[in-house]
Predict the 3D structure of the following.
Amino acid sequence: METREGADGPGGPEGLICASFNQDTTSLAVGTKTGYRLFSVTLVDRLDCIHESAETPDVYIVERLFSSSLVVVVSLAMPRRMNVYHFKKGTEICNYSYSNNILAVRLNRQRLIVCLEESIYIHNIKDMKLLKTLLNTPSNPTGLCALSINHSNSYLAYPGSATIGEIIIYDANNLSTVTMIPAHDSPLAAITFNASGTKLASASERGTVIRVFTVPEGTRLFEFRRGMKRYVSISSLSFSADAQFLCASSNTETVHIFKLEQHSPSREEESPTWSAYVGKMFTAASNYLPAQVSGMMNQDRAFATVRLNIFGLKNICALATIQKLPRLLVASSDGHLYIYNVDPQDGGECVLVKKHRLFHSEEDRGESEPEARASLPANQSYAATVAMPTTPPSSAALTGYSEDGGVKKGEVIPEHEFAAGPVCLDDENEFPPVSTQDN
């Protein structure tokens, strides 16, 4: 779930370059010209800044692992290098360099995925070891990929073709290809898993039809029509936590929410209505029409919608339960987070309840933040700053080395390369360092 603008794109004087929600939609990360910020989105009326770093400018990828202290950062200054930080301690865990620009990073509690235009790297997140390199993948200039957040069903999805909408489902735990889903006739524009990794939603570059498939079988479950009049660029898809709803945002002013429900024929027969009768007539008629026309007649429309006051700007959307009520979150490249109420029974037009700025004015900068802002030390390894805090690393003894497919470790090898046991961040005495809520 991320959006990306150019370094000189909109977003106020600092310039919003990217934004992404974490895996359970409790946190929002934004990359800017001056660094990156992490926000808690567990309240409607308040947007707390958990952490802010100005050490790395022009951040175009920033991903946080759930509510942990682990954050991955990539900047425009060094687009081939991925830095992994423990932001609460202000330490670098490790860094990796790749053969080409990094286009996307995805995380769950088992795997860290790095996507380049024609290759994908799969790391074990517990020690950052490179497990597998998928070389010569179809050209993927936008870095489109999705990783299930369920570490038991750790499925990876990525385009299987540059010309049509094929989706490759890859088992990132067992490191094997599972299936290929022929999802669309046009190239893919967006893909996402539900929380359990049992459903996958997709949209093509045309942006008119959104489909939902079972995982790993690849059976089509639902087909939703976003619109018929114009092609749009869908920027994000996101399931609700219970997978009952799916939201989609694009470069238009409308965000759509679809309801994933199977219509029961028996219920229609028990309480016949005029709309049910007409629906049956259309279904019967569709059997005698060409497949393309009958498919359009059987597609469901949006259950709920949001009309944004902005047009043509990139944004990301997510469905979350905040303070026990369902909400739609929209982070826009205009530098704001919009929070809407969603009626889970009747749908319809969603109501805007709060608009938060992602950038502070000069007056706001003097106010204290909920948590201390730890700066990240430059050119220090995890081994030097945590395991051996009083002993500086020797660059002569700890040199980098090459991995399969062109990935190269940083100037200093992280501690796990020579330690007896796996690296532990020692955050909440577990790894990955996941806590139930932000402090």
In short: Helices lie at 265-270, 274-286, 291-297, 382-387. The longest strand covers residues 78-86. Residues 83 and 266 are 56 Å apart (CA to CA).
